[in-house]
Amino acid sequence: MASKLTEVAIDCMEPQKLADFWCQVLGYVVVDASDDVISIGPSEGREPRELEGPAACLLTFARVAESKVVKNRLHLDVNPVGCTQDEEVRRLQALGARRVDVGQGQVPWVVLGDPEGNEFCVLASPGR
Fold it and tell me: What gap in Å lies between CA 125 and CA 70, rounded to an integer?
């Protein structure tokens, strides 16, 4: 037996703002929402925990009072689909992401921060 990753919870000050950003990044839709917690996931109509086999997981944004202070201990990696890494980085920056330096040095991925500064990486090529 094994567990299946079905959800990643992200603390934030503005759940709606981050949910909107990540919906645009990933092509997700809101699957559940309250004032303080918003979950987004694939638009297939079923939650990842209901699907058999590998599935994209939900992202859940939960309101907290404090802002982000230090580098994330866990981060998301995204792959460009149908475009180059540079094109995807430009698209994400237009959505509100910004480049950040976490001491990564010369690497083939690009580190960005979402609108609340949570780091994520745009990998060098699709599927990598």
Answer: 28
